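ok so i was messing around last nite and threw this chain in just to see what happens. nothing serious, just curious
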Amino acid sequence: MGSDHDRERFTRASWLDRPVPVRRLGWVRDALLLVLPLAALLSAVVYDMPFEDSYISFRYAENLAAGMGIVYNAGEVVEGFTSFGWVVLLAMLKSAGLPIPAVATFLSLGFGLGVVVMTAALSQAWLGARGAWRVGPAILVLVNGTWAYYSGTGMETTLFVLLLTLALVLLARGDFAAAAWAGVVMAGASLVRPEGVGYVAVLLAALLFDRDGRKQALVMLAVFLLVFGPYFAWRWSHFGHPLPNTWYAKASPGVAGFTVGLVQVEEFFTTQLFWVVPAALAVCWVLKGAERWSRLAAAVVVGAVVNVVLVGGDGFAFHRFFLPAIPAGAVAIVGAGRALMGVRRIAGLRGRISPRFVGGLLFVLLCVWTFHAPLRSRTSFTAQRPESQYERVMSVREINDEYFVVGAWLRENFSPETLVATNAAGIVPYVSGLPTIDMLGLNDVHIAHRDITLGKVTLGHEKHDALYVLSRKPDVILLGLPVITDTDIRSSELEIWFSGWWQYLPGDRDMFLDESFRRDYVPYSVKVTETEWLTFFLRRPE
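result:
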């Protein structure tokens, strides 16, 4: 018989922590290899729809590949995109002869699958997990609608999350080489999304709680600054501002914006049951202490919350700014499950109620809730919204499909130098190829930097300057959103039709009621398909 010390050590250890023979884990590996492509296919089918803002980046990439520089319109220097790295990557692929929209969708889906695999790697790196414990967090990501939707948008979101999760895996190693590589990876993430800098800050804060962590933090910070610093200096010098133009056009650092952001935080935590994550971290801290991995997980969750609040929320569906926290949150949930099963009194129930069964049942219920969340109404403690996330994107899909029709009609019926003013700066300008005034300011420095209090109407639709737009004498003005109608709109019906947009687009009201607009522009309703019409305003010849 062993010593009392050995018996005590065996009693305290979780029976789940014993090594599992590799041959028993083959089904887990095979299941994951099967689930990944099936999930990718499901995501591609269910969420195969154009994403309006991705076409802004596509336009910049097309112009860069054509030798015009990183510009929205020829000769206009403005940083109307949030992902320098994504634009440059797409431009390189375009130069190689690949079509940007298709390759961007392929990449976002591929990087999305990479996030799932990296989540499994994170579970192993943080928890030493094997088998089902390792695959569990990856499954939680797979069933999440935020992951599924943004894996098919052609946006840079999944690449950013993949890089951030890779940095977390590296930081788990605890050596200086890994910390240096984490600095490189986070510099790359900050080239992909500007909030990468904020995540560097929260990761550094999480590392400062132990001596080895402080040394790692210094190494990571030094390498990060060495890589990111020169780029940031160039960007500020080239574009003239420290932050992307999109920040000035859409972000809302003020009480109104912060309130909107807090409401979105609560909605996400409630509808997605993400409250389980801080609860899981609390369990881990009580039972295991604030280990480094749990501090890093908490840092990422806090970083996501702070980001949402600072920018005043997000106008898009599916809470994309929380996607960076989903892998770490999934690992935290599994970590809490393992910690709870290691408690002696719970393990003692094995003869009557299997902890594996209880834990598995709760995990399945959480997966079902997470998968079904996008299909339910967005009812939370702070708001009741009957429209589900899925219904939101499906309604937007119909509008975006019309944008392609409008863009193609403009390209076919106007000369290449025709100047267009529109509130939809993605698909229509990309497809038409015409020089464009972005009346919401994402791609216009003057409008973006106007001193307008944000947080009162639809996010991203608040900056405007009708007189400035008219002073540039656009040839074509598309008021409202450039959608098509079943019938033509007569002159007597114009104000009734366009006033319906004014609560979402306050700049349109100023323009429509302006005397010079009514004097200089003539309304036209034209057939853009056999049965549908587009109404726009054409400048009178001088």
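not much to say yet. The chain is about 60% helix and 5% strand.
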